[in-house]
Model the fold of this input.
Amino acid sequence: NELARMMVGREIVSTYEKKQKKEGKVALSVDDLWVKSDRDTFAVKGISFKINRGEILGIAGVSGNGQRQLVEVITGLRKPCKGKIEIFNHDISHKNAKEIFRLKVGHIPEERLVFGCVPNLSIMENSILKEYDSPSFCKNMILNFEKIQNHTRKLIEDFSITTVSINNPIKLLSGGNIQKFICAREFSSKPELLIAAHPTYGLDIAATDYIRRLFLKKRDEGCSILLVSEDLEEILTISDRVLVMFNGTISGIFIPGEISMEKIGLMMAGSTSS
Done:
């Protein structure tokens, strides 16, 4: 099967150095999870997996095989029909997004203008979208605009975001700059678990490389990352393990470099790893 080769065009040779990972405690546990799509059919069908602390688990697969619904249910944007999800031993199966965020969970969503930001709000307002009530920015229900401005400017500087003014609506930024902004905001919250869906989509080569290296840096610092991407090269170069989804099920889990591209292609087409 040539599916994986067609998606990448060549064999994968990683240019990223990854420190040896020590198996740690479980950060995210998914057990017998069933999730319906908006069409009222099952998009996720009884899958189970775990992510350890300080591990990047990549989810590979052709778009439309349940990845979006999986991310939405883990981040509190969709309710499961059955199954259990635990984050740091807390059952979050029926928690909302705010409750999950309080467990130090970051989220880089697939739909940046729907779940990642509020288009008509300013860049500055979007910078504290999830932390507006944090003591870092608010005291006695009064926002500290100087701190918020400094915070926003640091995000823009650190991620080389191009903008005329932090007071402009975020919708005026290019798609790539919006994506960089969302990544910057989520990393600034120092998450212990990051759920990232297509984090480098729309970015140039330099920004893509920066984000990938930052993922590896956070992983080495103990952050656990669930990485969903249609970029198979990205998945294979920075993930510690890769889970392949097909038709809402897991067709295989493997360590990059230990199986051939042909086997990966077969799994992406629905053949199980066994």
